Amino acid sequence: MRVLTVSGVFAVEDHNGEAMYTLTRVSRLLLNGDGERTHALSHLVRVLVNPLTVASHFSIHEWFTIEQAAAMTPFEVAHGCTRWEMIENDAKDGSVFNTAMVEDSRVAMDIILKESCGVFQGISSLVDVGGGHGAAAAAIATAFPNIKCTVLDLPHIVAEAPTTHSNIQFVGGDFFEFIPAADVVLLKYILHAWQDDDCVKILRRCKEAILARDAGGKVIIIEVVVGIGSKEIVPKEMQILFDVFMMYVDGIEREEHEWKKIFLEAGFSDYKITPVLGARSIIEVYP
Predict the structure, then answer these.
(1) Residue 136: other Cβ atoms inside 10 A
(2) Tens digit of pLDDT for each residue in 67-86?
(3) Of the candidates 132, 176, 165, 123, the residue with the CA atom closest to the CA atom of residue 151
(4) Which residues form the O-methyltransferase C-terminal domain (predicted)?
(5) Is the pTM of this model over 0.85?
(6) Is 184 contained in some domain?
């Protein structure tokens, strides 16, 4: 409990000579969500500390030193399949992962739509690439009823998505192959799971999608930009440690010059970074 109080998970008070522990803003987010509570991150924590994920990092030695292993991700070295194949084939693991993404999107989009809603103004259509069960799209469609939203994800994921919002269309497909046309393409926590070559391929598909509308659209990326963010809330050390964490899928957290490199290679001409959510930023990328 001393560790948890020092790290801010709990607060401790003296109560007639006895220690009394209370919740903080951090631990309130770790409570299980219910019908009335929409801001909870308990499933996200389960994903981050999943033994399957943690065990992957113990395969980094083989990943570095064995030629055959170097062609795979540490997760594949440890488990014999990719992280995405595991999610598809293990119903329980897939359910926890998708629920975690919904939780994270609800919390993130609540903050973004309060502090940086201007990035979504003046557009009529948006496609959320890799949008899972549509939590981010639902938040946008609710805040901006005039925006027609499409969620693109793998067929087995969108097949389980709720259809409660009339202004959201779900499309099953592979974003490496095709992205539906829209004024704006949203990539929320997608590119950090891929190396540069794959990011360039995804961004080129994004560019095709927004140019097909001939409306001078943009790509909105919500990701970490290492070294940029609220240093009072999240130190750079945390961003770097998460970069190490993402190695389990051969992912990477990027500094601004690394983002700029893939934007230019994908054929974009300009971008704008707006810090938000402490560690993360909104990057608007223009063709």
Answers:
(1) 27
(2) 989 899 999 999 999 999 99
(3) 132
(4) 72-269
(5) yes
(6) yes
